TrEMBL record:
GO terms for molecular function: iron ion binding; L-ascorbic acid binding; procollagen-proline 4-dioxygenase activity. Residues 431-454 are annotated as: Disordered. Residues 61-273 form the Prolyl 4-hydroxylase alpha subunit domain. InterPro entries: P4HA-like (IPR045054), Pro_4_hyd_alph (IPR006620), Tudor_AtPTM-like (IPR047365). This is Prolyl 4-hydroxylase alpha subunit domain-containing protein. Keywords: Dioxygenase, Iron, Metal-binding, Oxidoreductase. SMART domains: P4Hc (SM00702). GO terms for cellular component: endoplasmic reticulum. The keyword Iron applies. The keyword Oxidoreductase applies. Its cofactor is L-ascorbate. It comes from Prymnesium parvum (Toxic golden alga). Residues 436-447 have a biased composition (Basic and acidic residues).
Length: 519
């Protein structure tokens, strides 16, 4: 268990920011990326880190969701952190103008603040969130985990500042927005105003749902824009708390609907502010790793997600798979002939007809020849236990696909889930790599830093030295290699992460030369 080198106590619901920045009238600078997402017309689909997509769900104000913002491995790591610090959860509270903490009936959930930058996984999440909106990672507040159970809720509030409602007796008035007063008028509520805080301003909120809940349970509801969002494991809800002028946008007031007895909701608040939060960063945090073979932690039992919540497969895994597409009264069988990042999947039908299709659209089609998948390899993440590989042994219409894993266990999977767990065929991968080598100029191959690298597994055991922005250099060792997740690195401070070959080449330490030998 690592020792805390330096810990600055931080309460994300109390006194925020630095005392020498108490100027409520200041206007924060809105980055170009943030302006493009939230203040440049109607919301549209955007691409963010590692191919994730911002999917618009509301315009004016623009609100987005990101499926699989957190990977299964990151969810497992957060589960370890929550389990090791479960006694640190405290009842959530709100803050007043004089920065006093207020416990009230409007907020009955519990919360846990995670020390900023104390873990490789937390640093990766902070960096991803900052890159999403164009702010530096040090502008991310310490992550806050929230827990709802037994009827817990959070009534209507605004993440930027205190919300005021002045009820009026005027009847029949329509909803209006007063830009100059940062106020909206609602026909049922009255005049709704949000006051800017004296400390740091939360410009953007990214709320990540850690577990999936049934329809109608634990939703995030925006009453003034008529929007309700269902929690889905690993999905992020993204919205901007300010207008282009930097003043609060009262339309983004929202509430966490009650979670009834028998259900549990975990979420992670990621707030991006207009000032640096580096004063709250720490170098290490005591997190006890869960011993192998023990019962999973708090979060793992809740991560048994629906088949359509599984991350999409590797694109090459769907090449050569046959699907059935219904056109009018007849069905047409098509085979996935190829994939490209620009066009998507090329689906070829009988009669030489073809069309291009995106991943999510393709996965909704039924299989034309399900028995052809027998013998294919699959890879599935089991929350709290890791990733296991297996082989499809049989198919039946009654039970679906029978899969046997490398540890001897077996299970039946529906077709929709099998498609998301498929591994690329070795022959397909080899053909793709061979075509890439033939198309690449010889001079480029000679200049490439990875052209002369040995086999990937030969790099296991090598030392690495990586710079984490604003945290310094950390050394570690490559412990294993997996063709799906890449190289697994364990750092000397106990943190772990997976990296690709290109990144590994940049952080490899020079091999030590035994004494008596010349370089």
């Amino acid at each position: 268990m690592a020792e805390l080198a330096r810990l600055v106590e931080y309460n994300p619901d109390g006194k925020r920011g630095l005392l020498n920045r108490r100027d409520p009238s200041r206007d924060p600078r809105i980055p170009a990326r943030m302006s493009d997402l939230f203040h440049s017309g109607a919301a549209r689909e955007h691409t963010c880190a590692r191919g994730r997509r911002l999917e618009p769900i509301h315009s004016d104000p623009n609100v987005y969701t990101i499926r699989h913002f957190l990977s299964p491995r990151e969810l497992d790591r957060l589960d370890e952190i929550l389990t090791s610090r479960r006694r640190a959860f405290k009842q959530s509270h709100t803050d007043s103008d004089d920065t006093a903490l207020i416990l009230g009936a409007e907020r009955t959930s519990s919360s846990l603040a995670l020390p900023k930058g104390s873990d490789a996984t937390l640093r990766a999440i902070e960096a991803r969130a900052a890159e999403l909106v164009g702010l530096p990672p040090d502008h991310v507040e310490p992550l806050q985990i929230v827990h709802y159970a037994d009827g817990a809720k959070f009534d209507c509030h605004h993440d930027l500042g205190a919300m005021e409602v002045k009820r009026r007796r005027t009847e029949g008035a329509k909803a209006e927005q007063h830009e100059e007063k940062d106020t909206i008028w609602h026909e049922h509520e009255g005049e709704v105003t949000v006051r800017s805080p004296a400390g740091a301003r939360r410009l953007v909120t990214i709320f990540v749902y850690l577990n999936t809940l049934p329809e109608g349970v634990g939703h995030t509801r925006f009453p003034y824009i008529g929007l309700s969002v269902r929690p889905r494991s690993g999905m992020a809800l993204v919205f901007c708390n300010v207008k282009l002028s930097g003043q609060p946008d009262a339309r983004l007031c929202h509430e966490a609907c009650p979670v009834p007895s028998g259900s549990v909701k975990f979420g992670c608040n990621i707030w991006l502010t207009d000032v640096t939060m580096q004063a709250h960063a720490v170098e290490a945090v005591p997190i006890r790793k869960r011993p192998a073979g023990r019962t999973p932690g708090l979060l793992a039992p809740l991560l048994q997600i629906e088949h359509d919540d599984f991350p999409p497969p590797h694109p090459l895994a769907l090449v050569s798979v046959c699907f059935r597409r219904r056109v009018g009264a007849r069905g047409c069988d098509g085979r996935v002939a190829s994939y490209s990042a620009r066009r998507g999947f090329r689906l070829e039908y009988e009669g030489r007809e073809a069309e291009d299709m995106e991943m999510e659209e393709l996965l909704k089609l039924p299989l034309a020849q399900p028995c052809a998948l027998v013998g294919r390899r699959v890879s599935k993440h089991f929350p709290g236990h890791g990733v296991f590989c297996g082989v499809i042994e049989a198919y039946s219409e009654e039970h679906g696909f029978s899969v046997r894993y490398s540890d001897g266990d077996s299970e039946d999977m529906p077709p929709a889930q099998v498609l998301r767990c498929l591994c690329p065929e070795k022959a397909t991968t080899k053909r793709r790599k061979a075509a890439h080598r033939e198309a690449r100029p010889t001079e480029e191959s000679e200049r490439s830093p990875t052209a002369a690298l040995p086999a990937s597994r030969a790099l296991v055991g090598r030392r690495v030295r990586k710079l984490f922005r604003r945290y310094g250099f950390f050394e570690g060792v490559v412990t294993s290699y997996d063709r799906h997740t890449g190289f697994h690195i364990k750092y000397d401070d106990g943190d772990e992460e997976d990296v690709g070959l290109a990144e590994l080449c940049t952080i490899l330490s020079k091999p030590e030369i035994p004494s008596g030998k010349k370089s």
